[in-house]
Amino acid sequence: MDKIGRYEFLAEPFHCDYSGRLFMGHLGNHMLNAADFHSTARGFGMKYLMTIQRAWVLSRLAIEVVDMPKMYDKFTIETRVESAMKYFTNRNFKVVGDDGRVKAWGRSVWAMIDTETRHPEDIYAIDNGAINNWIVKEYDCPIEKCGRVAVSDGVQLIKKIDTTYSDVDINGHINSVKYIEHVLDLWSIDWYKQHKLKRFEIAYVAEAHQGDKLSFYREQLGELEYYVRIVRSDGTETCRSKVVFEEIEIEN
Amino acid sequence: MDKIGRYEFLAEPFHCDYSGRLFMGHLGNHMLNAADFHSTARGFGMKYLMTIQRAWVLSRLAIEVVDMPKMYDKFTIETRVESAMKYFTNRNFKVVGDDGRVKAWGRSVWAMIDTETRHPEDIYAIDNGAINNWIVKEYDCPIEKCGRVAVSDGVQLIKKIDTTYSDVDINGHINSVKYIEHVLDLWSIDWYKQHKLKRFEIAYVAEAHQGDKLSFYREQLGELEYYVRIVRSDGTETCRSKVVFEEIEIEN
Q1: Residue in A14, A165, A175 closest to B14 by CB
Q2: ipTM of the complex
Q3: What pLDDT is attached to residue A138?
Q4: Any bridge partners for residue B90, and if so which?
Q5: Short-list A69, A110, A90, CA closest to A204
Q6: Low-confidence residues in chain B, pLDDT < 70
Q7: Could B170 and A72 be called an inter-chain contact, meaning their C-beta atoms sit closer than 8 Å?
Q8: Which of A24, A247, B113, B117 is the most interior residue, by most CB within 10 Å?
Q9: What pLDDT sits at residue A58?
Q10: Which of B244, B248, B212 is nearest to B230 (CA)?
Q11: pLDDT at position B242, please?
């Protein structure tokens, strides 16, 4: 079996924004699905891990957009494991359009946990370090790694939301994809009419649960660069995100 | 070509709720995709209609759940045109699991509009009434038609939300699938732990736009039957919905 997995997706109409481009949250969802299909086909997917009381937990996700797929565009997501350490593995993504052009790049970091204790577990302990068989080092991924964002005192509370039924996943946690949607909803459509997303990055720090109120703090880091911090009801930080826009060139 | 279209879908992990069952909004989205694939393959899809200044507009959708697909379940959505009149067409759906069992049924009503005037247009004017070639009368759909829900004075305002970037579709309208999500978010997870959705019905009455505040009014019609009315900022009703639950039998 090929070490790299390739999966086809469609930019569905109701998954596209006011401009007819795929929402970033849905692109992220497709990447997470590609990761799942890839690992399942190679014997280390979620379904198998559940049988041995283990699970993959997404720790970080970074996506850079070259040309976001448009409504009805077909595209392929390629994914491979770039490296694995005892407690973390790096997985990359390449989104390629039907025309062969790259539409986006992605990087992700995953931990493996014991589903009972919720503690990190040794990835190499699975099937005698079988993950090593799937590592592909020679592969292009020209975007920056998920970085650490330093928190300053400049963050300001700009929104509070109640979490609802549709925010919660099977673990009783706020759905990783919904966080992406909530972060990007901090900007208005008028903003998106003048700015497009260039890079979106999120680090999942601690889980929020049903019933938590989420507070969104935002700080401007550069001209079109923002830092967003999400804090749950008890004051614990759940996510931090960095969002980089670029101005849309108006065609005459 | 077969008059009935059949399309395969997967209950993706991030599309499932706290109980590991597919969210109703995502099932609705899959049905609308099936409708789109079916009509496109048969020459009366959105992409073709756009070239002649026409578009399908979803007027009503009703879904009854038999056994909502679980995470990672594959299922097929069958769809056919049941009937067509000058201004409306009825399209039905049958959701079938990998095991051959019916998981859900759906009914929908669509109008065709002129995309410039936004007025209803004669469906039979398209390609000399070609829609008639695709009508399948002999086909099971054992659920009630989309009904008219009488509004009483018993409705109470229970929630107001600001619409955001992720609520808005390419037409600048609130996304039909997002309405389903917002309506079902009126109930808490604690409610869903004791009640499952049996029937969901929505009528799209008028469009809401970016920036509109949506007010949700609710009235209890029967023991487990609710009416929900959504009103936009200027007081115009945008949607009305009927939601029927059933108690979850607790297994000992």
Answers
A1: A175
A2: 0.95
A3: 82
A4: B83, B109
A5: A110
A6: 251-252
A7: no
A8: A24
A9: 97
A10: B212
A11: 96
Tell me if B192 and A165 make a contact (CB, 8 A cut-off): yes
Contact yes or no for B119/B83 (Cβ under 8 A): no
Residues of chain A short of pLDDT 70, as ranges, are 251-252
Strand order in the sheet with A5-10: A5-10, A74-84, A88-97, A102-114, A54-65, A195-204, A237-247, A225-231, A213-222, A156-162
Q: What is the pLDDT of residue A252?
A: 57
Q: Is B216 on the interface with A (CB under 8 A)?
A: no
Element (H, E) at B192: helix B189-194
Q: Are A130 and A84 in contact (CB under 8 A)?
A: no
Phi-psi region at B70: left, alpha or beta (left = phi > 0; alpha = psi -120 to 50)? beta
Structure-block tokens of residue B156: 């109470």
DSSP codes of every residue in chain A: --SSEEEEEE--GGGB-TTSBB-HHHHHHHHHHHHHHHHHHTT-SHHHHHHTTEEEEEEEEEEEESSPPBTT-EEEEEEEEEEE-SSEEEEEEEEEETTS-EEEEEEEEEEEEETTT--B--GGGGGGTGGGGGB--S----SPPPPPPPP-TT-EEEEEEE--GGGB-TTSBBPHHHHHHHHHTTS-HHHHHHEEEEEEEEEE-S--BTT-EEEEEEEEEETTEEEEEEE-TTS-EEEEEEEEEEEPPPP-
- Looking at B2-66, list the stretches that DSSP marks H as alpha helix, in order from N- to C-terminal side: 24-41, 46-51
pLDDT digits (tens, 9 = 90+) for A108-145: 999 999 999 999 999 999 888 889 999 998 878 999 99
- Contact flag B18-A210 (C-beta cutoff 8 Å): yes
Which residues on B lie below 8 Å from A184 (Cβ)? 165-166
Q: Which residue type sits at B154? A: G
Nearest to B221 by CA among B154, B169, B176, B157: B154
Query: At A19, which amino acid appears?
Result: S
Buried b (16+ CB within 10 A) or exposed e, B180-213: bbbbbbbbebeebeebbbbbbbbbbeebbbbebe
Contacts B68 to A, Cβ<8 Å: none
Residue pair B75/B8 in contact (Cβ under 8 Å)? The answer is yes
Q: Do the chains contact at B210 and A18, CB–CB below 8 Å?
A: yes
**Contact at 8 Å (CB) between B120 and B73?**
no
Four-residue CA torsion sign, B166, B169, B171, B174: negative
Contact A165 B175 (CB under 8 A): no
Q: For position B138, what pLDDT does the model report?
A: 82
pLDDT at res. B252: 57
Contact between B208 and B214 under an 8 Å Cβ cutoff? The reply is: yes
